[in-house]
Amino acid sequence: MTVRDDGLDELEVWIDQDLCTGDGICAQYAPEIFELDIDGLAYVKSPDDELLQDKGATTPVPLPLLNDVRDSAKECPGDCIHVRRVADKVEVYGPDAP
Ligand code: SF4
């Protein structure tokens, strides 16, 4: 993916907890982004490390973590990690990616 300065490549990620199996693969791959809560499900974290538990909550994907987040989405057994472009909300990695 090329990096442009028009913001089109900025990505965000969210988790569909309804499908999360709680295995924790995402939190192993990218602990800066994903964390398991005491309910046994994975959630994304804000840039200041706050667990975001609202349904559909998103957090930005920093470029240095993109590979880890992409691998998390690919390996996620629940197929419930969605990575999408901020600009147009088009999913680029995850179950709804083209
Ligand atoms: S990898 Fe997927 S199924 Fe596993 S804990 Fe993370 S979000 Fe849930």
From TrEMBL:
Domain of life: Bacteria
InterPro entries hit by this protein: 3Fe4S_ferredoxin (IPR001080), ET_Ferredoxin (IPR052395)
Key words, A-Z: 4Fe-4S, Electron transport, Iron, Iron-sulfur, Metal-binding, Transport
Requisite cofactors: [4Fe-4S] cluster
Function: Ferredoxins are iron-sulfur proteins that transfer electrons in a wide variety of metabolic reactions.
Name the UniProt record assigns to this protein: Ferredoxin
